[in-house]
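for the recovery benchmark. tokens below, seq after
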């Protein structure tokens, strides 16, 4: 299990990935896909900080981790010698035709929504946006169209669902001192609430111990997710049960754990040499 995990990052050919990116300055290219968010996040930080030699000197590359069908993809671009490079936005505001969900409804209206700037399948950048004018029942309308370089098409109906999900999540602020409480309707609601209960008597409990307990209770998937999280986490064996619970909560909310985004651009400043403190228990 442990060895299996280690294989993925080791297979990343950073020399080739960096070379490819250098040949197309300013263009985002996928470096690799990692199983855990922590691994991808750590690699992206390493690329930006120049800790991975192929990307030196530091500041030559931008990089970010993003959701991928198979885990967490790391995307990078060479910004060396590229004047006035446009920062990668966190979100896009798009106008989308909305046909409604009512059966038999044939009208259409344009809904303006906020979505991720990244493809939901592979994490590659979406767009660019172009305005599309059309007429429906004599009414002139305009919506946005875009083609993703990664090749994954975005269907409007799915885009609307994504936007709704963002709205739903926006009502759930990320607290400074997060409480361990299961997300209603989440995949890990019961295991998280169990950990919360266990933490009341043993606040120092480790992730591994809680994974074992969950497994004994039949929550095998939660146990497995926690073990993977602890393995890929820099704190490793020391990873706390609380951090593991918070990770499960983030998963249930559809958010990557500990992602440090700054409005409009990736939080480079915050990344300066924080690799050893990445993770939990902040
Ligand atoms: Zn894609």
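predicted aa per position
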């Amino acid at each position: 299990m442990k060895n299996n995990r280690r294989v993925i990052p080791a297979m990343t050919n950073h020399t080739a990935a960096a070379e490819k990116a250098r040949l197309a300055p300013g263009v985002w290219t996928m470096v690799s896909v990692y199983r855990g968010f922590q691994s991808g996040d750590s690699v992206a930080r390493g690329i930006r900080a120049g800790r991975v030699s192929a990307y030196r000197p530091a500041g030559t590359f931008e990089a970010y981790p993003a959701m991928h069908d198979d885990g967490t993809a790391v995307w990078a671009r060479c910004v060396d010698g590229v004047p006035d490079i446009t920062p990668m936005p966190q979100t896009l505001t798009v106008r989308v035709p909305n046909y409604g969900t009512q059966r038999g409804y044939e009208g259409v209206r344009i809904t303006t929504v906020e979505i991720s700037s990244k493809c939901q399948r592979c994490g590659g950048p979406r767009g660019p946006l172009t305005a599309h004018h059309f007429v429906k029942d004599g009414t002139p309308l305009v919506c946005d169209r875009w083609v993703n370089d990664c090749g994954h098409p975005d269907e409007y109906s799915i885009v609307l669902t994504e936007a709704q999900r963002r709205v739903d999540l926006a009502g759930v602020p990320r607290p400074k001192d997060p409480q361990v409480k299961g997300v209603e309707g989440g995949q890990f609601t019961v295991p998280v609430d169990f950990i919360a209960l266990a933490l009341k008597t043993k606040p120092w409990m480790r992730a591994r111990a809680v994974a074992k307990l969950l497994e004994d209770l039949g929550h095998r998937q939660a146990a497995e997710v926690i073990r993977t999280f602890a393995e890929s986490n820099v704190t490793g064996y020391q990873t706390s049960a609380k951090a593991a619970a918070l990770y499960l909560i983030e998963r249930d909310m559809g958010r990557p754990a500990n992602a440090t985004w700054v409005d409009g651009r990736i939080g480079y400043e915050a990344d300066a040499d924080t690799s050893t403190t990445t993770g939990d228990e902040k």
